[in-house]
Amino acid sequence: MISRRDFLQQVSGAMVAxxxxxxxxxxxxxxxxxVVPGKEGMIVRSARFLxxxxxxxxxxxxxxxxxxxxxxxxMHEPSTLDANSWRLNIGGEVEKxxxxxxxxxxxxxxxxxxxxxxxxxxxxxFQQPNVPGVQWGKGAVGTGRFTGxxxxxxxxxxxxxxxxxxxxxxxxxxIPGKVPAFIRSIPVEKATDSDTLVATHMNGAxxxxxxxxxARCLVPGWIGAASCKWLTEIKVLDKEFEGNFMKPAYRMPxxxxxxxxxxxxxxxxxVTGLNVKxxxxxxxxxxxxxxxxxxxxxxxxxxxxxVVRVEISTDSGxxxxxxxxxxEQTHYAWRLWNYDWKAPKAGDYTLMSRATDSQGRTQPQxxxxxxxxxxxxxxxxxxxxxxx
Length: 388
Ligand code: MTE
Known about the structure:
The chain is mostly beta strands. It is 10% helix and 32% strand. A hairpin with a 5-residue loop joins β4 (88-92) and β5 (98-100).
């Protein structure tokens, strides 16, 4: 069995050896005390391919500090990342292929976008019937301020040919064995949006290794999988990239399917923008509250749309009252909200939150079931007990 010290060294160095990984994973999942340096207090969903979830109580700050920002890796993080020798290759359907250094990126006009990044699988653990994959709860989500040159500016320099339809990204992940590389593409329209970035900074500091140092893509409002970390190659293609992480992964059925049903892979589409969603950061689920005065608060987001309303129910969904939305607000970023409530008497209560966005979408009572558990967005709820 591996020692705790060795475990920490391995995780912090992103060098979790495949041979040691399966016992390590079960040990990590069972051991609430596992701490990843710089990520204290996070829920370790997986140590082989580090997957860290933010406990919902940390959804209480508009900008999520990096130490509370979730981590989602499909493979091993790169073991060596050297800012001086790092290069970004831009090629494919372009007039002039480019090779850029970090210093070259720093010379371009920087742009900042405050974006709520959410993993497509966030909330998968709540799907019934259950589906395979990382059993995320509520916290594979966070809001960061990402800064770097616009991808559009890089593509303009390279000169996208009229045949260029999709833009593909490759990271420096270390691929275990013969599994397919984490390669995906986005349509050229989204790639040339003025808010799509090659980000080098997060919350005012250079990206950390877990979040894609030295440069990552930031595709705002879209599922986290669109935002490739440890970027090393950008390739303009004449069509959507064909590979495991575009199909069958990260696709939704075109038609609603019955829970537990099968889907025809040819009757699916790539998951792009995020759903409308809210989560309750406090009170936590389950505690005994000594006071009848309860401060209910949380965060709500809607991908490329804006949150216009959050409603709270304190009676298991029978009636709803508007929550107050925080002033901090930009396109693509979550809104914090709060609602002060006085419990009429001691007893058990189910508190619920429900968001509505500028596209008229409202969080449903139960999320559409799909075989990969993507875009789960059912009304959030916590149960509390108010003491006499
Ligand atoms: N980029 C690379 N190269 N490899 C990955 O495994 N995971 C993706 C995306 N970018 C991934 C990646 C997924 S699924 C998500 S949700 C986000 O990164 C998570 O970003 P974070 O770890 O910075 O929170």
